[in-house]
Amino acid sequence: MYLNCHTYYSLRYGTMPTVELCELAKKNGVKQLAVTDINNTSACLEFLKITRRTNLKALVGIDFRNGADQQYVGIAKNNTGYRQLNEHLSNYIHTHKEFPAQAPPLPDCFIIYSLEKVISQKKKDFRENEFIGISTESLRKLKFSEYQKLKDKLVLLQTVSFRNKKDYNAHRLLRAIDNNTLLSKLPKSEQGFFHHQMIPPADIEKEFEDFPHILENTQNLMNLCQVNFEFGRDQNRNLKIAGRSEQEDEKKLVELCYKKLPERYPEKEEKVYARVEKELGVIIRLGFVSYFLINLDIVSYARSQNYPFIGRGSGANSIVAYILGITNVDPIELDLYFERFINPNRSSPPDFDIDFSWKDRNDVTRYIFEQYEHTALMGTYVTFKRRAVARELGKVFGLPKENIDKLSQGFFNYKELDHLEKLVLRYSRLIDGFPNYLSVHSGGIMILNDSVYNYAGTFLPPKGFRTIQIDMNIAEDVGIHKFDILAQRGLSKITDAIEIINQNQPTAKIKDIEDIKVFKEDSAINDLLKTGDCMGVFYVESPAMRGLLTKLQTDNYMNLVAASSVIRPGISSAGMKEEFIRRHRDPERRKEAHPVMLKIMKDTYGVMVYQEDVMKVAFEFAGLDLDDADVLRRGMSGKKTSKGQMEKIEETFRENCKERGYSVQLTNEVWEQISSFAGYAFPKGHSASYAVESYQSLYLKKYFPLEFMVAAINNGGGFYDLQTYIQEIRKCGGEIHAPCINESDHPNTIHNKDVYLGLGYVKELEDKTIIQILENRQFFGPFKSLDDFIDRVNISIEQISLLLKVNAFRFTKFDKHHLLWKAYFKLQHNKPKSNQPLLFKSKHRDFELPEFEYSKLIEAYDQMELLGFPLCSQFDLLQEPLKNSVEAKNLKNYIGKEVEIYGNLVNSKKTGTSNGKYMYFGTFYDIEGNIFDIVLFPAVAEKYSHIHKGIYLCYGTVTEDLGFISINAKWISRQAIQTDPRLVDSGFKVKIAN
């Protein structure tokens, strides 16, 4: 009869997973138990599920605390009481207020105050549902307290937080981490008590033998509590849209589908209508109508705001979704199985993933919260990781930094460690995996038929949308299914590029960005794919993808769709990637495929490439029905299946293969292929959705390269760093300029072919300074001089120095060092603090200054300090002149020969090998800005523990693999750059004019 038990969801306090608390109760013969985590109900549903088929009666509630100071414990009488507790908890968490000492009226809950709290507050009045909690430790106080007369109000409140001394020690360490203090300085008030452990019921009865009424009251209270959940029942499967019945929803879905069908399929094909009829029948029968309508409502709102979006994932397998406009992938064209999305035996709602621009998702989320009453973001737990815990515990124990680094990085000999260091490792292993703090799921939104608080409490993250205290796994167990509203930067690159084109080239004619068919058939766009010229393009710009596109000689949409899945690790590790490439390039090699496999997967030459191929092979090769084929795919992908279901399907698979006359060897090979890649491959619809977005970006890159690249870097770039994208702008004919107070905005801007870096790139330049400059310029026009700027902008000498050092005043034609000296003399610390323009401008004194000699090297180092990179070519900064060497564009003329080539490192990847060694893959651009790749095999790679950014002289043999050229490096040598001349004292003197 424990009314206050903590799991490790009492964050940075508790030490037991929920299941282990239940095991502890069983071990001690406890029959009734309440989980009451501190300001948290994450464990409640899991606890109810674990105990529903056991003899342990489960109660749920909350231990309400301000910090570590307990105010009261709330126990839910029933489901209504559970909701009331969650509402009360959430109200205070959202507003960051402390819980009051007196609980509010919560009629369907029991409220228990500890005896110590009652005594300290001199509490006299108790509501009918309020009680005084007595522990074994507080019994002695009760004997001398006036409260012993309130016999009907006394219940057992024995807190359970730990199992043993090890748990208690871990608890103290967690509290020290939470308080950011040394363990030796952790206040007692921030800790639990060692005796907060589970005592066997017989011992409790012995302790309370003089107060049997307390145990009787406790038992009566627990008997009145019953919270029930129907686990496995889909809580939001048949969502009720306000004001409409299920029949009205069904009618609306059918009407919309047939109304919009001619837009997607102008030619009335019989197979299209048959597919639509089939899908609508399944959707209506399974009760998923509102799910489609809600997703349609969300994307319709996005369209009304001109927000771009991509409907992807397995939802792209649905012709209904395609016709409604939720997705933009034609499942007929791509031969996509609807059963991959929804099979007739599916219980959970279908899984739409909808990507929005990172700039637009917040507004889409706001719309969802306003449109649907019972809504919350899905929570997720960030857990403690062993190495990070080792670092935190090292601080708690007061270890020196070098010792902490040694332990967290794993570079130590255990036998040489001292006692404290071994303690750090021991407890980091124990705490590893504990929930650390609640965060927000990357895209999950819950839309429910009833209150969110029926399930858990909520918290309010910085963006202001309430977020539930349970993660996806617990939600799925209860039967809550999320909507996935995701964000990416690729979409905003497209919309921003179009906006920049309209500004920079007002007369330019931009094709309809939704007319993907035109882009697919454009040979100039396809040539970018064929040569791997995809820098900045969503999803296809990485070195690995660029190499794959070159090897495949990708020149069409379907081939790009295949490449998007072939690049996945499961296909590569099984050897299917290389086989697919060779069969693609060599039609004769396709004959090596098994005839049945080739017939099933004609487009991919008999090689399994997509998740759907698992279904195809299971259905057409092994004769499984499509429902079982989808279960097989889900099981192979690590999704939950019924107990024994996968074993039964494998048995059927093998029996069917035997009946069809396949050899055991062939059956095993096919089964192994399915097993090896199913969990890593993409759905074909997913790859197709991404390929559509890639084509949109490729169109803009081909015909508006400068505007597209400016949009790309304004949206955070992509796979590469900013300097690499700037090099790409130069390659496309653009001129890069340092920030300028008259030309630059906060982001990057373009005027004709001149690209001005944004003021936001200047390190340590404050946002308020940038805003003030831009607002002043907008209202009063360009700045005419340094004096004019000083008169108009309220700025400190530190902030203006940053602008001067980055040469943002070069329009004045004065050397920046000259201006910097003048600024120091002119800018008075007692300058009036006002943003208003001066009515009468004070006369500026002038100063006689020496002439300054311009230095490209100083300019470059100032830029490296303030921007992070120089705007000149880094090859110009080398100490030694370049030797004669080959250029990247000519490497094709040196295949099989050894060459030397200079390259600026763009990206490097260190990869482990099967024998425990490692190798490097490096991507560089040469002095002309052309890309080339090198490989350092293990024998060479072991000479280089780390490869840092910089210019290298690379020596090796040029190789060619299916059109992709690279260099097998024998050595690389990082080239030294000239030293910083700013560190040398110039020695000049300045004469100040009177």
Automatic annotation (TrEMBL):
Keywords: DNA replication, DNA-directed DNA polymerase, Nucleotidyltransferase, Transferase. GO terms for molecular function: 3'-5' exonuclease activity; DNA-directed DNA polymerase activity. It catalyses: DNA(n) + a 2'-deoxyribonucleoside 5'-triphosphate = DNA(n+1) + diphosphate. Its EC number is 2.7.7.7. The keyword Nucleotidyltransferase applies. Residues 1-68 form the Polymerase/histidinol phosphatase N-terminal domain. InterPro entries: DNA_pol3_alpha_NTPase_dom, DNA_pol3_finger, DnaE2/DnaE/PolC, DNAPol_HHH, PHP_dom, Pol/His_phosphatase_N, Pol/histidinol_Pase-like. The keyword Disulfide bond does not apply. Pfam families: DNA_pol3_alpha, DNA_pol3_finger, HHH_6, PHP. One of its GO terms (biological process) is DNA replication. This is DNA-directed DNA polymerase. It comes from Christiangramia forsetii (strain DSM 17595 / CGMCC 1.15422 / KT0803).
